[in-house]
Hints:
heterodimer; A: mainly alpha; 11 helices; 70% helix; 0% strand; B: alpha+beta; Beta Polymerase, domain 2; Cytochrome-c3 Hydrogenase, chain B; 2 domains; five-stranded mixed β-sheet; three-stranded antiparallel β-sheet; 19 helices; 15 strands; globular
Amino acid sequence: xxxxxxxxxxxxxxxxxxxxxxxxxxxxxxxxxxxxxxxxxxxxxxxxxxxxxxxxxxxxxxxxxxxxxxxxxxxxxxxxxxxxxxxxxxxxxxxxxxxxxxxxxxxxxxxxxxxxxxxxxxxxxxxxxxxxxxxxxxxxxxxxxxxxxxxxxxxxxxxxxxxxxxxxxxxxxxxxxxxxxxxxxxxxxxxxxxxxxxxxxxxxxxxxxxxxxxxxxxxxxxxxxxxxxxxxxxxxxxxxxxxxxxxxxxxxxxxxxxxxxxxxxxxxxxxxxxxxxxxxxxxxxxxxxxxxxxxxxxxxxxxxxxxxxxxxxxxxxx
Amino acid sequence: xxxxxxxxxxxxxxxxxxxxxxxxxxxxxxxxxxxxxxxxxxxxxxxxxxxxxxxxxxxxxxxxxxxxxxxxxxxxxxxxxxxxxxxxxxxxxxxxxxxxxxxxxxxxxxxxxxxxxxxxxxxxxxxxxxxxxxxxxxxxxxxxxxxxxxxxxxxxxxxxxxxxxxxxxxxxxxxxxxxxxxxxxxxxxxxxxxxxxxxxxxxxxxxxxxxxxxxxxxxxxxxxxxxxxxxxxxxxxxxxxxxxxxxxxxxxxxxxxxxxxxxxxxxxxxxxxxxxxxxxxxxxxxxxxxxxxxxxxxxxxxxxxxxxxxxxxxxxxxxxxxxxxxxxxxxxxxxxxxxxxxxxxxxxxxxxxxxxxxxxxxxxxxxxxxxxxxxxxxxxxxxxxxxxxxxxxxxxxxxxxxxxxxxxxxxxxxxxxxxxxxxxxxxxxxxxxxxxxxxxxxxxxxxxxxxxxxxxxxxxxxxxxxxxxxxxxxxxxxxxxxxxxxxxxxxxxxxxxxxxxxxxxxxxxxxxxxx
Lengths: 318, 515
């Protein structure tokens, strides 16, 4: 009985991330619209977009390889698994032992690798430009992410996210300089990885400035739907990750009852809304940076994460 | 220069009010004029062909005089001006393929507007009274049309990026061929002509009223400037009397058009750097301008409001109030917008130093409008070749010398201020009276020139009427003819991701250029 219940909770978590991911995108778009004096599309518009794309036919380039066709599903699968592993409303789920931070980084890394391949598959110049830019950014963002993971692991004594989250929720963690640095680093990595302003512009129609959009320019129909959903999942993943590590308030433990889980879910929803609003406000108040400035920007994350890790070697209490 | 002084001697008040005394030149004089252009003592205003020859409109900046030189063409060939003066090249290519002429010695003989999809060749050559031999009219062979060789680029690890003519956004079509090394642009070459509508052919034989409509549809965002320039040309050719109030109303419309376009573009430039706030705020203001235009003139873009002989309708009783309210709204909002632009470091980081246009190049190409003025070219038709009512208004022409995207944005912001000032002067000083007079009939063939400052720069229209008062030839030169080549120069050495910013800060016309 306990096992069935645990599986149900785990199943809810997996479905929850897919169900909520487009909503987070919808919230961000809505707030951005309101901030720029527009009414904006309804919150459910991203769901409608995905449904619409699912129903449309797929237009493939003549020289698209089999890889081009399977990559959207691979990206979606890898991102979904990664997003489902991150504790959202509860820790200690059935599969939480797999929720290793390094595994999550690796899953996202492979998704990016395949997306970059897809960008170059058809051979149009925009895809190539997008892939090369994406790889350039990733070469800085991935190490920054790894170093952040190390900081967290040194503090919590584990790379397992569930354990990290439980430790962070406990009073023994205290206020640490290295955590502050890790938070800033992780936010910068999240902005870069999710192709948000100032690194990339998710709303642009200018082929020459695109990064993420340039790689997926040749996709259509259900393929594009998969990629859009994966992109939304990735955003949700980073928000959940930052939420469960740095703001773990209300997250339900494995021995909490139904009330605890419901409270956790409600607070998780609130965290998503706050994150969506903050992202929109940030994006509205800043212009996109030059492509070659991005490595400096992500470099700040790398340096902060490195500094945070080093501080922990100097003193366990920093 | 001695030869050209005789030809380039028409003062503004002469060609503004009367028919054009076109000077027929010999091949030697034509070559001398080309040399004067190359040496920089003259600016090229336009180059075009008609049934019997090729014509050049020239400007002498120092004396503010202009001249029209006409060379009678024999054997379908004329000495190339583009050979020594690059700004003439594309005009020459267009003139050559429309009339089936050849520019002798031209370095670039590729077709320009003709993409082989017209179903005929040299569309204007066969019209009434064509020169010696009838030009061949069968379409360009597909092989020739498909094989458009872009200029070669040599070097290591270069690759090409082809953009357009179909873009990811809803914008006009144009093809841009970038040769890049990594992200750095080594060369950009544009290929235009996708929006060719055959306006020149439609104009030939049209009535003046029809011509005015066609002129107003050449480039939608400059419809007032085009209609005014066309009206000027026709009125000058016929020496037609125009009621004074009509001039003031035209200026009012022209400034409203400038206001709307500059507001829209300032926002759009910032939006290309993903700074959506500026676009949102500017779009609100632009919309208010357009609604005021709709309210006062019955059309948001004021199309068909300027007609030869005057304007189509007068302001009604409330219009002054509507416009004064509009001025007040924009005056209130502008300082905050300027501060937002100037105070956003991330935005300035994108615009300052990006897409720098060398002042020498701007001068050589005679770049009009904000493109020239941001690169130190101190020229504005409204002030330097004045026409009513600008000769009675106070106008300061802004000028900068840094020539980057930021400078072009600032010129536009300052021009918005000037337009606001002009509109309030116009509202205060506008005389009463009729707004339209009938055009006198044409008894004999005559020619007139119109030169109006549109928001992009000087729009030149030359109209030749035949004895029945129909249009024998109408040539319209958009300021973009001299700005497109500069855009190619500006992007060199910049990164490819900055092209949209540079492009938007130029905002050249496709439709006005492709005709």
